[in-house]
Structure formats: structure tokens, C-alpha cells
Design goal:
Layout (H helix, E strand, L loop, with lengths): L4 H10 L5 H24 L4 H12 L2 H11 L3 H30 L13 E7 L3 E4 L2 E12 L5 E10 L17 E4 L6 E2 L4 E4 L4 E7 L7 E6 L6 E6 L6
Antiparallel strand pairs: 1-3, 2-3, 3-4, 4-8, 5-9, 6-8, 7-8, 9-10
Length: 240
């Protein structure tokens, strides 16, 4: 068949069969039948294009055939297999997303990028962590810095980990940011809204003013479904 009329009819007719192996088998059988009918008309001297038209007319309404085949080919295992394939695809997408998330989540950043216009004076690596609901938070580093106005700030770099990558990172704003108090009783004033510098890793930059540079430590308090959770921050560099 050199025209597409019969092939178009065939595609429409088998389109309602959801299980691919059944659809391919029925499509092959109908195709062979169309070829045979077409050859019969050609043997009778009917022109090729007219023969194709007669074949399509003889086969009837493709939509009716589609509905009939869809009713006949509803195998239980076919539906089960289609469902399983869908679940496998979803699981693979989830796994890839989790792989990307975890790959970056556990990488130590080679360069420290404080807010624009901030000059870092000294940085103290950290290792303390705390669990808050579905998240585990780890403090990576704390830095004393001068902002654009020349005021001293403590910048805390915090990273959130979660067993479910689809949860994403926690959502904080200026009014609901973690609170900070140093060992001398100074309460940190949040300078800017918390900034999440990397989406996948939920890496947060928290800037606090009013922290004494001579304090020994500070305590960061994070909101949690179980109540406020605290994590200590060392403000003294450890000698090698």
C-alpha cells in the first residue's frame, strides 16, 4: 500500500489497546489482513489509490473498531505490567533526583560565598548537628565579617539534610529565622532574610548582628515540631 489511508485507519483502530504486546500483535494481524484485501482489489484491476479507499471502507469505522478492541483486550496482567512500568519510571526519576541531591548535599563547598559586599575576617569550621522533625541540620562554618555598612556580623552556614529529597528545604523568612545567643548573653539580630544559596542542598546563610567577637560560643535555636532545638557554635578557632 503506497497511500497512508489504510495505515492511518490501522493506527486509529488499535490505539485503544493499552498493553503494548497485545497492541503490536493485533496491529500485525490487521495489517496483514489489509494487505490481503488490497491485493485482492488490485488483482481485479482496481487502481491502487481506489483500492486503498475500498479497503478502508470495507473495514468500517475505525473508532468503532477501536472501542471493540479496547473492550476485548483488557488482560489483568497487562494492566498490572503497565502499572508496574509506571511505578518503575517514577522510582527511577525519584532515585535520580535523590542521587543529585545527596551528591551535592555531602560535598564540602571548596569556596565560601558570603553575601555580596561582606568582607570575611575569620572563619571557624563547625561540626555540630541537630535533628528537627524530618530534617537534620549541620552547621558547616561560622564567620565574623564586616558588612557594607562596616558593622560586624556573624555569618552561620547551615545545611539541611532530609531522608526524602522531595521535601525540599525548610522555608524561613526574616521573622521566623533561627535565633542566636552568645556565651555573654548577647542576642543576635538577624541582619537580612535567610538566604538559601543552593536549592538542591538547602544550604543556608544566616547573618546575625550584635554577637560579641570575644565570646567563647553561641547557641543557635531552630524551630521544630518537637519544640525548639539548639545546636552549639564555637566562636574560637581550634589550634592545630
Amino acid at each position: 500500500m503506497k497511500t497512508d489511508r489504510s495505515l492511518s485507519w490501522l493506527r486509529d483502530a488499535v490505539g485503544g489497546i493499552k498493553y503494548r504486546p497485545d497492541r503490536k500483535r493485533v496491529e500485525k494481524e490487521l495489517y496483514e489482513h489489509l494487505i490481503a484485501r488490497n491485493e485482492d482489489f488490485l488483482a481485479q484491476g482496481v487502481p491502487e489509490r481506489e483500492a486503498d479507499e475500498l479497503v478502508v471502507k470495507a473495514m468500517g469505522d475505525p473508532e468503532e473498531t477501536r472501542r471493540m478492541l479496547a473492550e476485548v483486550y483488557k488482560p489483568f496482567w497487562g494492566n498490572v505490567i503497565n502499572t508496574l512500568l509506571t511505578l518503575v519510571v517514577i522510582a527511577l526519576i525519584w532515585a535520580v533526583f535523590a542521587l543529585v541531591t545527596n551528591r551535592y548535599a555531602f560535598l564540602e563547598m571548596s569556596s565560601y560565598a558570603p553575601p555580596e559586599g561582606t568582607v570575611v575576617e575569620r572563619t571557624i569550621p563547625q561540626s555540630a548537628s541537630v535533628r528537627c522533625g524530618d530534617y537534620r541540620f549541620r552547621v558547616l562554618r561560622a564567620s565574623f565579617a564586616k558588612n557594607e555598612a562596616g558593622n560586624s556580623e556573624l555569618i552561620v552556614e547551615l545545611r539541611a539534610f532530609t531522608p526524602d529529597p522531595l521535601l525540599g528545604g525548610p522555608k524561613w523568612d526574616y521573622y521566623h529565622a533561627p535565633t542566636l545567643i552568645d556565651s555573654r548573653g548577647n542576642v543576635g539580630r538577624i541582619g537580612v532574610s535567610p538566604q538559601r544559596s543552593l536549592v538542591f542542598t538547602s544550604r543556608w546563610m544566616l547573618c546575625y548582628g550584635g554577637i560579641d567577637e570575644n565570646a567563647e560560643w553561641a547557641m543557635l535555636t531552630l524551630p521544630s515540631p518537637e519544640g525548639p532545638q539548639t545546636v552549639p557554635i564555637s566562636l574560637r578557632e581550634v589550634s592545630p
